[in-house]
Amino acid sequence: MKIAVVTDSTAYLTHEEREKYNIHVIPLSVTLEEGAFEEEVEISTTEFYNKVKKAKVFPKTTQPAVGKFVELYEALAKDHDDVISIHLSSGISGTYQGAVQAGEMVEGIEVYAFDSEISCAPQAFYAKKASEMAKNGASVEEILAKLEDLKTKTKAYFVVDDLSHLQRGGRLSSAAAIVGGLLQIKPVLNFENKVIVPFEKIRTKKKALKRVEELLAEDTKNYERLEGVVIHANAEAEGKAWMNELAAKYPNVDFHLSYFGPVIGTHLGEGSLGLTWVEKN
C-alpha cells in the first residue's frame, strides 16, 4: 500500500521540505490589481508584499478549483493506493471541502481529507509527520490517528499590527476589530473551533509577544522536547531576533523560522508575528 501526502500552499513548506518529505502541494491564489496569482508559483512572498504596499485595492484570496485537486489525485492514482490531503482550517477557507469533493470524484484511489483546523507551520507539522509515517509503513488509520493526537499537542498564537485586514477579509468579527482599533490594542489571536479569535487583549505588541512567550514557557515544563516555529509577515529581522531570544531561554525547544505567505499575509497584514510549537517525537 502506497500513501501520497498532499497539502496546500498555506503550509508554506520550503522547496527543500517538499522534496525531502515528497509532499505534493496545491496552491491557493491571491488577486491583486494586475490579476490572480497562485502563491509560491506565480508570485513570491517578497513580490506580494512589495505589490501590496503600492496597491490601491485590498487583495483577495481564492481557494483552488476542485478540478485542480481532481487532476492531482488522478495523477497520484497511477502509483498510489491512498492520499492523505491536509488543508488549512475549514473555518476560514473552502479548500478542505474542495479536497473532499474531489476525492468523491476520482476513481482508483482513496482520498482522506484532513482538516488541520489551523494553517501555516502547524499545518506543515501535520504534513511532514504524515509523510514520515507513510514512508515508515504506517497505515492510513494510524497516520490519521496520530494527526488527531498532534492537534491536541499543538499550540499557535499570533499578533497582528492592524486588525482591519482580518476584519475586511471576513476572518474576524467586525465587533472584535472595532474594539481592537478603538483601544489600539495588539490582541493575541489563536484558532478556536476552526476560526480566528482573540485569545487575550493586550495593549502593546511587546507585551503581547511576552504573553505568547509565557504560554510557551508553561509547555516547556510539560514536554521533554518541543519543535517551535516563529512565523513572520515580511518582518524577517524582527522574527529572527525573537527566535534567537527564545532559543537562548528555552534549550529544550528546537526553533525554526517560517513566514506568512501571500494568502495568509493578506488577512494578517505585514509585520504580524506568530509562534507555534508541538511535542517533538
From TrEMBL:
GO terms for molecular function: lipid binding. It comes from the Bacteria. This is DegV family protein with EDD domain. SUPFAM superfamilies: DAK1/DegV-like. Keywords: Lipid-binding. PANTHER family: DEGV DOMAIN-CONTAINING PROTEIN DR_1986-RELATED, FATTY ACID-BINDING PROTEIN TM_1468. It holds the Pfam family DegV.
